[in-house]
Design goal:
GNAT family N-acetyltransferase; GNAT_dom; Acyl_CoA_acyltransferase
Length: 189
């Protein structure tokens, strides 16, 4: 069966474009960089966050391919924790000419709707803008971009726009419908 998939690409071209979200109430949420490249942890985050919204493009990658992604110089994963439990993440992919893509961003389903997403996105965008401070061989960031699609969560686009991202491209295509893979079989029921 085929479905219509709309993909929107959004960008910021200056750190001044970022409109920060409020920090969630209390001191329960922390955002920490996963500094040790770990294919296992990266895959866990990917499946836990994207399992119910059809993230499946990386599921067929080998361990070696996952490890290459997390070991790429300048690649970073920032994780939101709620009282010690991973709640979501932002994955930054450094690209040539001072461009940083937010490749993946999202929350594990149990943590959605609690004002964590705006805060995590704010911090992820800040870390994209100051990436060269942590990676001296990198050129200063000139552009931060991401894409979202009609399969993502219902609040994704609004969150990106509230943080100051601007639409620069829209693509509509017919694609083969896939099942929600869940973090493991049967978990998305």
């Amino acid at each position: 069966m085929h479905i219509t998939l709309t993909t929107w690409s959004l960008e910021q071209t200056s750190p001044a474009d970022l409109r920060p979200a409020r920090v969630p109430e209390g001191d329960d949420v922390t955002i920490v960089r996963a500094e040790v490249p770990s294919a296992e942890f990266s895959r866990f985050l990917y499946t836990a966050v994207g399992g119910d919204i059809r993230w499946n493009d990386r599921l067929s990658l080998t361990y070696k391919q996952w490890q290459e992604i997390v070991e790429k110089p300048g690649a970073e994963i920032w994780v939101a924790y709620d009282r010690g439990t991973p709640a979501g993440y932002v994955e930054l992919d450094p690209q040539p000419d001072g461009v940083v893509e937010i490749v993946y961003f999202g929350l594990i389903p149990a943590f959605r709707g609690r004002a964590i997403g705006g805060h995590l996105l704010t911090e992820g965008v800040r870390r994209a803008w100051d990436l060269a401070e942590r990676w001296p061989d990198r050129e200063a960031t000139k552009r931060v971009w991401l894409h979202t699609c009609s399969l993502d969560g219902p609040h994704a686009m609004a969150n990106y726009e509230r943080r100051g991202f601007r639409l620069f491209d829209t693509k509509v295509e017919e694609v083969e419908e896939s099942e929600n893979p869940g973090p493991w079989p049967g978990a998305h029921g």
